[in-house]
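Re: the request from the purification team.
They wanted to know what the chain is likely to look like in 3D before they choose a buffer screen. I agreed to run a prediction and write the result into the notebook, where they can find it.
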Amino acid sequence: MDVTSPGTQDDSPADRYGRPALLKPFATVPVLATAAAFGAVLSALSGRYGFHRDELYFLAAGDHLDWGYVDQPPLTPLIARASTTLVGDGTAGLRVAATLASMVSVVIVALIARELGGGRRAQLWAAGLAALGGQLLAVAHMVSTATFDLLAWLLISWLMLRLLRTGDGRWWVAVGAAVGVGVQNKYLVVLLVAVLLAGVIAVGPRRVLRSGWLAAGIVLALALALPNLWWQADHDWPQLTVADGISTDDGAENRALFVPQQLIYLSPLFVPVWIAGWLRLWRDPALRWARAFAVAYPLLCVLVLAAGGKGYYAVPLLIVLLAAGCEPLLTWVRGGRRRVRNALLGTAVVLTAAINAMVTLPALPPSALAVPMAMNKEQGEQVGWPVLADAVRDGWAKVPADSRARAVVLAQNYGEAGALALYGPGRGLPRPYSGHMSFADWGPPPDSADGPVLLVAQREGQRFLSRHFTDCHEVARVDNGFGVDNEEQGAVVLLCAGATEPWSVLWPSLRHYY
C-alpha cells in the first residue's frame, strides 16, 4: 500500500533536517487485520450494559440538530443521529460510528510509525499497542466527543509529519481541512495546532511556515469552523462558561492527577516505550525534522495544567510518542537475552490487554463494576437508565389523572433528561425538560403547564431544584439493582404541587452549565 501522493518529494535526498529519501513499505495486511480484530471485539461488546449518559445527551441533541450547543460543536450529535438512522437505534447501532472511527485511528497510528521511519514490524507494533492502550479502548467503546477528537488529533499529527518530512507546503491544505472538521467536534484541536506551531518555530523546520499554502490551510480551517464559531458568538460564547466551570470545579483535582494519569492512560507498562519515542524524536539526527513533536508534548502538558484541564487532553500526543518508540522497542528486543526480553514484552502485552479490557470495556457483569469504577467511573454511567425511567413512571402514576395534562417532568441533568426522552414514551411519560446544558435551550415548558411538577434529581441535587417548587415530597427512588454506585444511584423522584413562578420567569434560574 502506497500512501504517498504527488508532490510528497519521497524521492528527494535527505536534507539538513535528516528527512529520509524513501519511506519503508506499509504493513497493509497485518495492520488492517489488527484494526479489524479491534473492531470485532468492540462490536461484540457494544450491546452490553447500556447507553452512557453522554450518549443519551448526543441522541437528544441529534433530535435538535443545530450548528452548535452550549457545551460542544455539532459533529458528534450529527454522527449519533446518522449512525442510529442508518444502523439502528440501540447501543450497537449508535456505537458503530465509534468503532469505525477507532479502527481508522489504529491504522493512522501505524502510518505515523511509518512516517517516522518505522518498518513493517514497528508499524504493526504501533497499531497493536495503540489498540491495547486504555484511552483508545475507552473512547472506542462508546460515542463521545473524545472518540472523534482522538481521531482528529492523530490525523492532524500524521499530516503534519508528512508536511515536515517532505517540506511540501501543499500538505497545509489537508492539515487545514482536518483542523476545520476537528473544531466542529471539539475545540481542543486548537491546542494541538498551537503546540505544534510553537515546536516548529522553536526547533524547525521553519521553512514550511514560509509556504503560501499555509494561508490557504488557515482559510480553509476557518471556513469549515465558521458556522459553529458564528453560533457560539451569537449565543455569547457559552462554551467559555462551560470551560470555566470545569476549571473552577475540577481544576485542582485535574492538576493533582495529571502526572499519574499520563502514566496510566495508555498503560504503565507502555511508559518505557513512549519515553523511548520522545528521546528518539529529540536525539535521533535522522528525525531532526520531527523534533517539533518532542517539544509539543511537554508544552501541551504545561498548557493543560495551567488551564486545569483533564489529563486525557494530552494523550493523543502520547500515542504519537508511543508510535515513535516502537522502533527502539524492537531494537531492544533484538538485543542480548532475546528470549527473556520477548517473554517480558509478551507478559506486558497480556497484562495490559487484560487490565485495560476490564477497566474500559463492558467485559464484567454489572454487579462486578466496583473495581473498574475505581479507575474509570464512566463504566458505571452505562448502567441503570431504564430503571430510572421506571422510577419516574412510578412517580408519574401518583400525579392525579385530571392534572396530568398540565403537569411537567423536570430532570436535574442531561443524563436523566436524555434517558427519559429515550425510554419515557414507552412508559407513558410526557416530554422531559431540564435546565442543564443545551436541554435548557429546548425549553421551557409552556406557562400553561401550571400543574404538578415531577422532579428527578441526584441525592445532592434535589435541594437545588425543589426550592423553586411547592409542597414537594418523595414518591420514588432509583435503585439500579446491581449495587453500582454511579451518579444516579439513589436519585429521588419528587412530586411537587407546582412551580413558584411561571416557567418563562423561572427558567433562567434553572439553567446550569456544569
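For the purification team: The first strand starts at residue 408 and ends at 411.
Please add any questions underneath this entry.
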